[in-house]
Amino acid sequence: MELIIPKKAEIPAFDPKAIKLQHISYFDYPYNEYEGEEITEAVIAEVLRKIPSGLNIYLSLVPDGEDSWLEINCDGEWLSIWYWSQDGEDNYFLYNPSFADTADRSKEVDFDETIHTPLNSGGQTPIPKLNAITDIEIGVKAVEYFIRTGEFYPGIDWLHEF
């Protein structure tokens, strides 16, 4: 089942120094990982700084990083964010309503540049434009909001698959 969660005009205030993450895992070389108290303001600043120039990373709310994680894929032009939990039974994807008419086709083909971004989830699965944005700045805000609150940024649309 799918449910579109539309963006909200108001973004609730949050503690700009809070850290809800328990695990960070870079998908690209040098494959750095951070856990618990290793996740400092300096580490968070580095993650947020690197996103606009291209980054593939997992941010998890659990210490082992095996569940409740946000995957961020960015190549500097496109940015995709999705959240995986409950062994893949409860997922949230960034939703780009500009590509709503491509939803069915994106599931039918392996790759089509008119409906997929150049991004790959996990290094192999093409990411549909339906689940990506080109407004990298708002994407970075969404990532920081998750880091600080453990919640989804209400300033973008989400697609909930359950």
Count of all domains: 1
Gyration radius from CA atoms, angstroms: 15 Å
**What average pLDDT do the residues reach?**
94
Bin the strand percentage: 25-35%
- Quantity of strands, as a count: 11
The total count of helices amounts to: 3
Instruction: Name the helicity range.
Output: 10-25%
SSE string: EEEHEEEEHEEEHE
The largest sheet, given as strand count, sense and whether it forms a barrel, is:
9 strands, antiparallel
- Low-confidence stretches are none
Structure description:
The chain is an alpha+beta fold. The chain has one domain. Helix content is about 20%, strand content about 30%. The protein contains three helices and eleven strands, in the order βββαββββαβββαβ. It has helices at about 40-50, 105-110, 135-150; strands spanning about 1-5, 25, 35, 55-60, 70-75, 80-85, 90-95, 115-120, 125-130, 130-135, 160. Strands 1, 2, 3, 4, 5, 6, 7, 10 and 11 form a nine-stranded antiparallel beta sheet that branches. Strands 8-9 form a two-stranded antiparallel ribbon. Strand 2 (about 25) and strand 3 form a beta hairpin. The longest helix has 14 residues, at about 135-150.
Short recap of the structure:
By secondary structure, this protein is an alpha+beta fold. The chain has helices at residues 41-50, 103-108, 136-149, and strands spanning 2-5, 23-26, 33-35, 55-60, 69-74, 79-84, 91-94, 116-121, 125-128, 132-133, 158-161.
Could you outline the blueprint of secondary structure elements for this entry?
Elements: E1 2-5, E2 23-26, E3 33-35, H1 41-50, E4 55-60, E5 69-74, E6 79-84, E7 91-94, H2 103-108, E8 116-121, E9 125-128, E10 132-133, H3 136-149, E11 158-161
Antiparallel strand pairs: 1-11, 2-3, 2-4, 4-5, 5-6, 6-7, 6-10, 7-11, 8-9
